Structure formats: structure tokens, C-alpha cells
Amino acid sequence: MIIQRASCFRRALLTSLEKVGPRYFTAPAQTSAQSSTYRDYELRDIFDWDNLGFKLIQTDYMFMTRSSQNGNFEKGKLNPYGNIELSPSAGVLNYGQGLIEGTKAYRVDDGRIFLFRPQESGIRMQIGAKRMCMPYPSIQQFVDAVKLTTIANKRWIPPAGKGSLYIRPLLIGNGPILGIAPAPEYTFIVYACPVGNYLWNGTQPLTLYVEEEHHRATQGGAGGVKAITNYAPVIKAIQKAKERGYSDVLYLDSVNKKYIEEVSASNIFLVKGKNISTPVASGTILEGVTRKSIIDIAHDLEYQVEERLIEADELFSADEVFCTGTALGVAPVGSITYKNKRINYKVSSDLISEQLNSRLVAIQKGIIEDKRGWIIEIK
């Protein structure tokens, strides 16, 4: 019975979207209140929201559109979540011409659904696309696709306080190409997945290891954009660190090998007194949306924030260290091991990182006023 109802729901949703015609890309269609309420109720009853973790869970729909010959993207549509077909000579498979993004949707206590700064992810995708010689959707197209994907997978958004819907936009060169050159065609995809805590050990503080052999990015490379090619090279270092009991890896710059840059998929901050420092994003560091948000919030709370070169030796004198990222949120660091020396940091409820995180979460959930237009309500 559940399978039959799911099939009917998918057909009804797609039919309703098709009836809207050209409008449905920029003005996502609503499903009937009765269907939406029923589907939400069904998942609340049968899904274990308390043990989500951060793993792939297949949802109902994904958005897809392709670029035309002039580089513009078609209006696109929702498809049932599933595999995509690629030529073995696709640019993304042969030369890594691809970008990823990430943003989240939250369900708040009164049932409303908020997106957090999806336009910033759209801007970052455009910056990355220019670096990778790829056409890209407009900011409005990007945000509308994220909205549409969120609405179509609304029943997968965890109840308030149980997690969020992680939304993953992809831009890939799917066109076939033999020589090293831009692919002749591109696909923009958005899919979603309910997630809980990013860390395998729940809410425990991070334990980091400073990697001195392998580097995440080099000057002149693509470390400052969210290219898919930035992530596979760090897997070896992460595996080595986790085998030794660490949460993740903190990388040094590849030239001087003494300045900290970022963790595998998150930015890092050091606290000394009332001063907060984070490595300057100079081309090798990804400017995270959460990073930018925390810097603004820290200024609001009258902390001094510096974006600068930070020597690894400063880790020994820091009062507090924390990391930020879309998937991670704001996470305190309990210890960092550098040159075989373990540096322990205080972990308590009065940390500056906890104060910043509380303000960020309150904005994301609509508890305090959003004065910067970071929140988009999904209706």
C-alpha cells in the first residue's frame, strides 16, 4: 500500500508541475495540502529521525537541466531520483570538469521551512564555473532549482531539532570530449538528502592532525573553488588520520609549509582573548558560506576578527579553536596534534564558538531577527 501511494504521489506531483508550464522553474508549484500533510505524517511515523547521521538516504526527486549550444541553461524539470547516463568520454569523467555546492533547508518549531543563504552558493558556483571554463545557471535559476527540489522532497525534511535537508547542486561537463578542452555540453543537477550530525562521534569536539606531507591545494590551483577535483586527493590523508583516532586533518600551505589553511572540508578559526583569527582566503582556501556568516556574527557581537596568515605555531597559544562548514556547522576543536605534540583546548558551554553557533542557529530557525536577508522561507 505504501509503495502504491508513493507512486501515485510522484505522478501527481510531476503532473501538477507540468501543468504550470514555463512558470514552474521560477515559481515552484505547490502540491495539494492533503498530499503534503499525508506524506509528512507517513515519514514522521516510520522514519528514525534520531539516528540520521550523515549518510546518503535516497529521497523522491532531483532537479535537472542541460545547457544549450549558446551556454544558457534550459528551464529544467524534476525527475524521480535516480541514476544519470554519461558517455565514457564525458568531460567530467575524463578531466574532472565538475563543481559541487551545498546548502540546507530547516524545519522550525511552527512547521515553516527555511533555506539558509542559497544565493551565496549560487554565486560561489558561478565563480567556480568561470575558473573551470564552464557555463553556469544564473543566481535566480540556481535558487529556484534549490527551492523546487526542497518542495518536492518536503516530506524528507526532519522535524525541528532533528536535523536538516542537505541540498547538493552539481554542475558537470557531461558532453563527450577526447582532448583536454571544455566539454560541449553541461548538466546542472540538484538533489537532496536528510542529514543529522556530520561527525561520526556525534557532538564530541574535533580532534585534528596537522598534515605535513600532503597538501590540499597550491597557489594558482583550484583550491579556492568547490571543484570536485579538490576532494579525492585529501581522502588518503583523512584515512591515515582516522586510523590513528583523529577526526580530520588540518593542512598547511604548500609553499612555506608553516601556515595553516583549512581542514579537509571546513574552515578553521583561532581564538585568543577577544580576538578571532581565520586564515585569509587567498586562492587556496574555500570561502565557506558558514565562514562568512560567522565572521559577520562575530562583528555583530563586537569581537575583533582578522583574516590573515596564521603560523601553525600559533596553535600552541590559542585559547580556543573551532571549525565551520555547511555540513559541519560550527564545531569546537578539542585537540590538535602538531609535530607529535598534542595541544588540548578548553571545551565548555561558555566558549566563544558556542556563542557564535547559538546566534547562527537562532537566525537559521527564525528565533531572532534576520537583518541581512539570509533566510528564504519555502511556501
From TrEMBL:
Its EC number is 2.6.1.42. One of its GO terms (biological process) is branched-chain amino acid biosynthetic process. It catalyses: L-leucine + 2-oxoglutarate = 4-methyl-2-oxopentanoate + L-glutamate; L-valine + 2-oxoglutarate = 3-methyl-2-oxobutanoate + L-glutamate; L-isoleucine + 2-oxoglutarate = (S)-3-methyl-2-oxopentanoate + L-glutamate. Its cofactor is pyridoxal 5'-phosphate. It comes from the Eukaryota. GO terms for cellular component: cytoplasm. PROSITE patterns: AA_TRANSFER_CLASS_4. Gene3D superfamilies: 3.30.470.10, D-amino Acid Aminotransferase, subunit A, domain 2. Pfam families: Aminotran_4. Keywords: Amino-acid biosynthesis, Aminotransferase, Branched-chain amino acid biosynthesis, Pyridoxal phosphate, Transferase. The modification N6-(pyridoxal phosphate)lysine is found at K226. The keyword Amino-acid biosynthesis applies. GO terms for molecular function: branched-chain-amino-acid transaminase activity. NCBIfam families: ilvE_II, PRK13357.1. Belongs to the class-IV pyridoxal-phosphate-dependent aminotransferase family. This is Branched-chain-amino-acid aminotransferase. It comes from Solanum bulbocastanum (Wild potato).
